[in-house]
Amino acid sequence: MKINISYPATAMQKVIDIDDEKKLQNLYDRRMAQEIDAGVLGDEFKGYVMRISGGNDKQGFPMKQGILTNTRVRLLLAEGQKCYRARRKGERKRASVRGCIVSHDISVLNLVVTKKGDAEVPGLTDDSVPRRLGPKRASKIRNLFNLTKEDDVRKYVIAREFENKKGKKVRKAPKIQRLITPLMLQRKRARKADKLASVKNTKAEAAEYKKLMAQRLAEQKEARRSAISKRRSSRKSQKQASA
Q1: For the segment 25-44, what is each residue's pLDDT rounded down to a tens digit?
Q2: Where is the composition biased (Basic residues) (predicted)?
Q3: Close Cβ partners of 12 (under 8 Å, ≥ 6 residues apart)
Q4: Distance from C-alpha of 140 to C-alpha of 205, rounded to nearest angstrom
Q5: In terms of pTM, does the model score above 0.85?
Q6: Boundaries of every domain in the chain
Q7: Closest by CA position to 32, among listed 66, 9, 5, 2
Q8: Which of these, 37, 215, 232, 241, is most buried using a 10 Å CB contact count?
C-alpha cells in the first residue's frame, strides 16, 4: 500500500510504499478523519500524529466520508456532492465509491500531519515550498499586511518577475478584486440617487392618481345627484299634468 503523507506547514508531500502487513494492520478498520499514531509506520515517524483524509482502491475509486463500510457501493450522486462532477444542471448519476473505512483493498491512503514529532522527515518537514501566488482580494491583502482603510492596497500586491520567451523581464501582478475606487463610489452614489428619484416619482404619481380618483368620484356623485333631481322634477310635472 502506498501512503501519501502531506504536511500543510511546509506544503510538501511524500509518498512511501509499505509492504509489511504488520504495519498495515494498524491502519485497517480505521475511518476517515480519525487520527493515528504515525509511529506504527516506522521509527522515522515516531511522535507524529496523522489524520486519515482519504484514499483510492486498486481500481481507482475514491473513499467517501460518511459511508460506513469497507467495500465499494453504488450511490445516486447529485451536483455538489463529493466524488462526482455533474455535467448538466440537475443531473444525478449512480456512481461507485469506496466506503470511509480502510481495508486491504486500498492502494493509496492519504494522511495529513496534524502534530509534528521530534525528528525531521527528509522530503516532508526539512524544507518548505513557498506559495507562488499571493492574495487577490483587497480585504485579504489588508489582513495580510495589517493595513488600514486609508492605505493604498495596490502598493502591497504581491507580484512576480520573470523572463519571457524573448528574454525580457516581465512583472506580473494579479488584478485586485473588490477594490474600492472613486469610479465605484460614483456609481454607488448614482444608484442611490436613481433609487431616491424613483421613490419620489412613485410618490408623486400615487398622489396624482389619488387626486384624479377623488375628482372622478366627485363627478360621478354630481352626475348621480343631477339625474335623481331630474327624475324627481319629471315625476312632479307628470302628477301636476294628471291632476
Answers
A1: 999 999 999 999 999 998 89
A2: 227-243
A3: 6, 123, 124, 125, 127, 128, 129
A4: 46
A5: no
A6: 2-115, 138-172
A7: 66
A8: 37
